Amino acid sequence: MSTHDLHRLTASEALQLIRTDQISVEEYARSLLKRVESRDSQVQAWAYLNPNLILSQARALDKVPKEERGPLHGIAIGVKDIMYTKDMPTEHNSPLYKGSLIQVDASPVMTLRNSGALIFGKTTTTEFASTTVGPQTSNPYNKGRTPGGSSSGSGAAVADMQVPIALGTQTGGSIIRPGSFNGILGYKPTWGAISREGVRMYSINLDTVGFYARSVQDLQLLADVFRLQDDEIPKPFILPGATFALCKTEVWPEAGPGTIKAMERAAELLRAAGAETVELDLPEDFNGMQDLHRRISQGDGRAAFLGEYTTAKDKLDTFLVGQVENVSGITRREYLEALDVVASLRPKIDRIASRYAAILTPSVPDEAPEGIESTGSAVFNAMWTALHIPVVNIPGFSGSSKLPIGLSLVAPRYKDRYLLNVSEEISKVFGNGGWQSDL
């Protein structure tokens, strides 16, 4: 492969070439920087990117003796700009934090850096990763469409092959939705499986750190680094004979023609591969999950932004002001009731999901909507986030404008490694869903 094309490599592919001295970290970094240079005017995925810092880090990594190299040695990773990075500003897309440099790494960044990763830059986000007002970032496949959010830059940068891996966070649908809109894998692990220390908090009860990648092998690599473990080591997943539950959920009326066709096509592909599919209607206990999620997130938001509110209310998005002022009028009783009801539903969904190879459910209403002013709807994600279970967006389908649409695989809590094994096989099947990247 030409050094000009190194940006196209997945993390696992690049890692193999670096380990065998076929390429240097600096050569790899320069290829990625050239990709950014050629595409930045269209995609605008970066809140902060310093080529000199990147190349300095790359040269330092090239000097590390082989026996001391970490499992991610030289792999470039984008970091959502709500996570502290000791050598880069963390601005949260807020004028209150313009140029703010906290000289410490967030726990996930620390883990990655200590594993030999090249911390490439800070990716764009909506304000405090809490609103649906898009940053300047565009969908790599169509400049006039959103890449989703709040992890806007992370999803766009990985899809556009500017980095092979990026960090995201999810409170509603901020990992899965950009994964679908950008045609890549988005992985939201079990809530609490990855530390949020040094990551800006919106909802203490919902926020989850996760990843974007272009191969499940890369997600497995990250799972190793973050020591994600199931209680039982999962066996290799065998697709023929497995049963998948197709769960449309109570918000199915929100599905557009692209998602409807994607669910139908996915069922056909699974059956053609030897699996079985069944329709899953969740018990009535799960009705109203959207409202329960809303109550929890807004209840948490009342405290989350009080500091900024009392510092400079006029510089906050009106949504965040409304959170602090509780304009929706959620009482403490209603907030506590939502916490308790959702807590009671988590073991129930674990039992239901354990009956199947996985639950297959929509990731988004349809392909990325027009305009970049809004990052789109999380209506199909909020429920699963509140239930704390692991979710992987699997790309492979498309809408009427030939833009990508993904579907979500869901498993019980702390069955992360199992879900990744399933995702590896399903990603091969969904690769025949009709959509292919042309970037």
TrEMBL record:
InterPro entries, per database record: Amidase (IPR000120), Amidase_dom (IPR023631), AS_sf (IPR036928)
Occurrences of domain Amidase (ranges): 29-420
MF terms in GO: catalytic activity
Compositional bias segments (type: Polar residues): 130-141
Annotated spans, Disordered: 130-155
One Pfam family this sequence matches: Amidase
Top-level taxon of origin: Eukaryota
Protein name in the entry: Unplaced genomic scaffold GYMLUscaffold_38, whole genome shotgun sequence
